[in-house]
Amino acid sequence: MTTVCRMPATLSVAICAYTLDRWDDLCAAVESVLAQRRPPDELLLVVDHCPELARRAVECLPSTVRVVDNRQQQGLSGGRNTAVAVANGEVIAFLDDDAVADADWTTRLLAGYRGPEVLGVGGLVRAWWETGRPGWFPAEFDWVVGCSYTGLPESGSAVRNFIGANMSFRRAEVLAAGGFRLDLGRVGTRPSGCEETELCIRITARNPGSVLRYEPGAAVRHHVPRQRTTWAYFRSRCYAEGGSKAVVARHRGTGPALASERRYLWRVVPVALARSLLHAELRTAAALCAGVGTTVAGYAVGRAGGRRRRPAGPSRLLSFPAGSSDPAGRSARSRP
C-alpha cells in the first residue's frame, strides 16, 4: 500500500564522485546546487574510495558541502546508498558530478511531489557536447551518454524509471525498498548501469498505485567529453546496457524490465531509421542498427550467463533490508 505522506518540506542533494580527473566538472556541479533559487537543506558529496579527492574537496569546496566517504563497496550504487543512509532530507535528489543544474531545478523537483502517490521525481538531462554532437549520433540514443533522448515524454508524465543524472525520491521509500543493488551500476569508468531502473521498478512494485513522475522542467546539463563521442564508446555502452538490462530482468522479471524498451524498439527506433534513410543519413541509420543489435547482443549474453551463475544472496545485493530501520537510527517508514 502506498505510504500516506504530506508534501515534502526538506531536500538533500547528493553528488557522487570518484576521480580528480573531473574536478572542474565537480566544482561546476556543486556551484549550480549552491546557487539554486530554492537552496537544498543540505548538499552531500560522496567520494567513492578516492582519498585524494576527499582531501581536496574538504580543503577547496565551501564548508556548506558535507563531504562523506563511500561506506559501501566501490561503485556508484554504494555511493548513492551511502548518501541515502546519511541524508537528513525527506527527499533526496541525485546530480551527476559532471552535470550542472538549472537555477530552478530543486524548485521544480519538489513541486512534482504534488500528491502522496508520487514517490519520486526526475527531470530532463540535456547533453552538452564538448566537441559538438557527432554527425552520425542519433538523438534516440542519447541515453548512451547518460542524457534524455528522443522518445521520452515532452511534458510531465508518469514513467517507469529516471535517468540517474537527474532524479529524486522520497528518502523513506528508498530505505524501505532496500536501496540500490550492489550488483548493478557504474564502477569507475566501467560503462554499466541500470541500478536506478531496477530501484524504480522495485519501489513502484511494492507500492501499488504509486507514481514516479518525469518533470522535464527540472533540467540539468550533462557534460559529454570527446572520448564519449567515438564509435568504440557507443558500441561498448550499448553492449553494457544490454547486459545490465539482463540483470534487471533476472531480478524483476522480463515484463517490468523490458516494457519501456519494447515500446522504444517498436515505435521510436523505426521512425528514426525511416527518417535517416529518407534523408540519406546513412551513418545515422547504421548507428541506429548497430546500437540496437549490440544492445540485444549484450542482453542475450547477460541472460545466458545469468542462467549459469548462482544468484548472490540478498544481504549482499541490498544495502537496507526491506522495511528495516534507517541506518541513522530512524524508522524507514516514520519519515513522511
Structure notes:
With 336 residues, the protein is of the alpha/beta class. It has a domain at 11-230: Spore Coat Polysaccharide Biosynthesis Protein SpsA, Chain A. 40% of the residues lie in helices and 18% in strands. It contains ten helices and nine strands. Strands 1, 2, 3, 4, 5, 6, 7, 8 and 9 form a nine-stranded mixed β-sheet that branches. Helix 1 (23-34) links the parallel strand 1 (11-17) and strand 2. Helix 6 (195-205) packs parallel to helix 7 and helix 7 (231-252) packs antiparallel against helix 8 (254-278). The longest helix has 27 residues, at 282-308. It is globular, with a radius of gyration of 19 Å. It starts with 10 loop residues before the first strand and ends in a 19-residue tail after the last helix.
Can you tell me the CATH superfamily of the domain at 11-230? Spore Coat Polysaccharide Biosynthesis Protein SpsA, Chain A
> How many H/I helices?
10
Mean pLDDT: 88
Q: Which geometry do the CA atoms define?
A: globular
Instruction: Please estimate the helix content.
Output: 40-55%
**Protein structure class:** alpha/beta
Q: Output the CATH topology of the domain at 11-230.
A: Spore Coat Polysaccharide Biosynthesis Protein SpsA, Chain A
Per DSSP E runs of 2 or more residues, the count of β-strands stands at 9
Over the alpha carbons, how many angstroms does the gyration radius reach? Answer: 19 Å
User: Helix and strand string, N-terminal first?
Assistant: EHEHEHEEHEEEHHEHHHH
CATH class of the domain at 11-230: Alpha Beta
